[in-house]
Design a protein that fits this description.
It is a single chain. The chain has 160 residues and is an alpha/beta fold.
Length: 160
Amino acid sequence: MTDERMGEALWDALERLPRGAGVVFRHYGLAAVERRALFARVLKVARRRGLVLVRAGSQPMRGEAGAHGRRGRGLRTAPAHNRREAVAALRAGANALFVSPAFPTRSHPGARALGRVRFGLLVRGLDVPVIALGGMDARKAASLKPFGLYGWAAIDAWTR
């Protein structure tokens, strides 16, 4: 997940991601022309590194592999904070779910985190790749593997 808070650490994070990893481009606070320019720069790195780049937000971007939380061409990912949202996203055609907040996160201070048990109950039986988001790092991702976790996403874990 990209975010304005990343600043220049974005570039190091993109270089550190494993080949085949995904990037959800957010940067909602930028003006449209700046956002498109930054997306183009991120796309260049993503192509060179073999990363899958999807965009969040309503404005389609040239070169995107898909959209997060929106209808669009290509890969469709969706957020899910509870079972109802997860089922609705699957019915709407989501190819993957970002389930959050798995753990307490700086991005949403005060939000009630799912924790391991509620995370497991939320994703049980879902026939789609599940990606954990919210307070994630490699250790916490490993703790969610028994629930069939496909992968994990973060902002802070990539900028430390």
